[in-house]
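Q: What structure does this chain adopt?
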Amino acid sequence: MEAGGDIHHLLYNDLARFTDNFSESNYLCHFQFGKLYRGKIVHAESTLFVMVKIWEDSQIYCYKPGDNESRLMDEVILLRNPMVINHPNLVKLYGYCYEVGHLGVVYEFDPFDSVYNLIPKDDFTWVQRIRVSLRFASLLAFLHAVKSPPYKRLIVRNLDCAHIVLDKDYNPKLCDFGLVTGGMVPDRTIYKCHHVIGCYGYLDLATHYQDNTSEKQDVFAFGTILLSLISKRLYTEQDRQNLAPYVCQWAYGKFIEYEIDSSNTDSKKPKFSVVHPSLEADPYFDPSDGHKITALALECVGDEFAMRPTMKQVLRSLLDLKV
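A:
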């Protein structure tokens, strides 16, 4: 393997060696355009734990030849930029593989698990879920403030629970930038891959068709992630095939039921919340937080995208929770 500055140019055989030939035991999860693996780079006197990301050709996401090559190079541009390189919630690039038929990157990161995998689990506590929400909101607020003329603000555009991976201390790391636009990368609305518009279950079509460059796309997706974290509910591939409602649609349905039920009774009902009962039993859970965080998430996924909060406002609301 050969180094180019601080970034290593890797062979596909290197990636296979790091992951024990992409073994099932090292498989972490799918992301929108491929797979994530745990790995390690063993030297004579030390071992570096890494995460390996492999791009795959896919018809599901309107793949066209050359798309993944563009995504790879844009990611390298982004993660080498001094404006973002030291952010604690972005993965740190170790190297990349650019071969015919084989594309991948390696991050200096020891992954514990993805948010997607952890959401249904009982040992993913209320405090840990709020910590993930808070730190990830902080990252998005930071990214939305990054500008690099002549480009617009930096927008991720394909946020997904599977694109957030945690370390053993439950610190979130964003690990996919396949549709990122603005900042220091070319404008995705006029660049290759513009035919891909986001992740199933997190995609706000209203914003996409009204304002394709609005950061409120990310706010919508964050609201969906927040709803998943507090309700322990995910939008799965099976849900997509069965045309099941998105998590945000499910939450709105519950809210409408609550409103109708409240109007038909004289008794004072608790304020609306979609927090899962097992999380309400957590010793650090406060009932007022359940209502506030549900209301915040529903504001993020509201139909009028101009009325959605900014990520800075979301961050302030999370900091006001009692937890």
